[in-house]
Structure prediction request, 252 residues.
Amino acid sequence: MFDLKGKVAIVTGGNGGIGLGMAKGLAQAGARVVIAARNAEKSAAAVEALIALGSDSFALAADVTDEASVQSLFDQVAQRCGRLDILVNNAGMTVRKSVDQLTLAEWNQVMDTNLTSAFLCSRAAHPLMKAAGGGKIINIGSMMSIFGAPYAPAYGASKGGIVQLTKATAMSWAVDGIQVNAILPGWIQTALTDGAREQVAGLSERVVARAPAARWGQPEDLAGAAVFLASAASDFVTGTAIPVDGGYSIAG
Prediction:
């Protein structure tokens, strides 16, 4: 039920952090994983790690905020692999400023990277998945899809938008056998959150104090949810947003 042998998966921003954590999970379940990212050196190291897990993986350079680059990415995957079964829209970034300090250029950069990229990639994936008789799209939201933070207006708006994009796409493409779901990571220890710990005083201690799991998450904590949503085990699950946060979002 969780076997992904013979499946092809694209993971955007999959060369580090939670993207690589999920990519490793997909590879261990048997998928051929395509890392789509801009940093060639990081991508090469990620592919090496996936190959060590037995996956016939490779990387393609792509700017997921650019329509032409996205189409080229999917055309290359179709040509090289002959199919596409799984898309993980994981590419993301943030600018930690309050609304009054945020520039329009910074707002647009965050929205383009986090939300518009998911739209572009999902749209490009649709004909390939439809032709194959179905597929799985996993959009990566955040705890900021649920909570507010004074230092994350653009990030929070983009991740809230991810949840609504997930619902709309799930409704549209169920008839094509495509399930679309979101994962909402909690506080996961990555390069992105390292910056938050440096910039937001007391954040690390507050996260540990609130989370029932009493720890920060690790990228590999996302692997199980990704495999579930990518596999036949979730064929009747669509339009959902699943927190993977050690219980942070349910704590009082």
The longest helix spans residues 104-132.
